[in-house]
Structures are given as C-alpha cells and as structure tokens.
Amino acid sequence: MPSWQEIFASTYGAYRLARLDAGGMHWFNHSIAGFWRSFGVALLVLPPYLLILALRLDDKVESGSWYFFIEMLGYALGWVAFPLIMLGISVIFSFQRNYISYIIAYNWTAMIQVAVVLPIVVLNSGGVVGQELGLFLGVAITLALLFYQWFVALTALQTSGLTAAALVALDFVLGRLISTGADRLIFTAQG
Predict the structure, then answer these.
(1) Which H, E and C letters describe the chain, residue by residue?
(2) pLDDT at 78 over 70
(3) Pick the residue with more confidence: 86 or 54?
(4) Separation between Cα atoms, residue 156 and residue 23, nearest integer Å
(5) Each residue of 97-119: pLDDT tens digit?
(6) Are 118 and 50 in contact (CB under 8 A)?
(7) Taking 60 as the threshold, does the pLDDT of residue 70 lie above it?
(8) Are residues 27 and 12 in contact, defined by beta-carbon separation less than 8 angstroms?
C-alpha cells in the first residue's frame, strides 16, 4: 500500500494530467515498487465505488449480496485485465520502456475519475437532476474521462495520438465486456 506522501503526490500528478499538464508524470514513483503500490489505488477508491454500486442498485436485482459479489469480481478483473493485456501490447509495439510509468499513471487516474463520477451518480440517484440532464452529464463525463485517458496514454507512452486513442478504445471495450458479463451473471442467477 502506498504511503500518505505517495498517495498525495500521485493523486496530484493524476490531477495535473487531468489538466493536460504532462508535468504530472513527474509526481509518480516510477520504480517497480511504485508500480506494484499503484495497484493499492484499487483499495483507495473501493469505498466510493461501493457507494456508486449501492446507488445504482436496481430494484430488479433480487439478491443484493449476489450483486455485490459479482460486481466485486468484475472490479478485481478490471484492475488486472488491462495491465496484463498492455504488457503483451507493450512488447509487440515496443512500449516496454514506458509500460511501468504508463500503468502507474493509469492506475492513479482512478482517484480523479471516481472523484468526478461519484457526484454525478449521487445527483442522478437522488433525483436532483432530471433524467435527460443526468444522461447528458453521464455522456459528457464519459467523453471527458476518455479524453483524459487518451492524454495519459499519449504522455506516458510517448506515442502517437492515434495509438493512444486505440489503447483507450481497447480499455473502454474491455471495461464494457467485463461490465456486461457481470450484469449477465447477476440477472442469469435470478432467472
């Protein structure tokens, strides 16, 4: 688990990247130990993620415990799948030199992403915003976060914009596949 100092510095680095400041990369610990500790972000963002899951819990879900169990499996898979796929891609496309820095930055961006998504989910679930405005906000935030991920890939991997876009698309599709698979498991078990 990262120290408080590393949490602060890395979250600040992720924030700087969100502001499209490539200097944010200097705030991360680019060592092998920093790489492994960056996966500790999964534990740091777990409480707000659980709140998001609770707020999105559908009345059609018969078993809340099964829902959370499957969602937690998907959460764990999501934290492992993309870095593993990127390991193979980094070898094929000669990103090995920047792989560790990219995954470190990629992992720490979750701190910013959850800080942006949680308020929108709270507003939507509380009925504070109408359905249409909620949908618009959801799409706008998704597009902004995809652009953020693109900038992180572009900066950390020192690659072309097109390659960065392809990696973000791959990550997005992988995330959707995991989410769809989890949903199917949740609703199949009920059926």
Answers:
(1) CCCHHHHHHHHHHHHHHHCCCHHHHHHCCCCHHHHHHHCCHHHHCHHHHHHHHHHHCCCCCCCHHHHHHHHHHHHHHHHHHHHHHHHHHHHHCCCHHHHHHHHHHHHHHHHHHHHHHHHHHHHHHCCCCCHHHHHHHHHHHHHHHHHHHHHHHHHHHCCCHHHHHHHHHHHHHHHHHHHHHHHHHHHHHHC
(2) yes
(3) 86
(4) 10
(5) 999 999 999 999 999 999 999 98
(6) no
(7) yes
(8) yes
Distance between CA atoms of 141 and 118, rounded to whole angstroms? Answer: 11
Q: Which residue in 108, 103, 6, 110 sits closest to 48, CA to CA?
A: 110
Length of the chain: 191
Closest to 71 measured CA to CA, from 93, 90, 91, 51: 51
pTM for the full model?
0.90
Alpha-carbon separation of residue 78 from 53, 174, 179 (angstroms) = 15, 8, 9
**Spatial separation of the C-alpha atoms in residues 89 and 167, rounded to whole Å:** 9
pLDDT in tens, 123-162: 887 777 777 887 888 899 999 999 999 999 999 999 999 9
Q: How confident is the model at residue 61 (pLDDT cuts 50, 70, 90)?
A: low
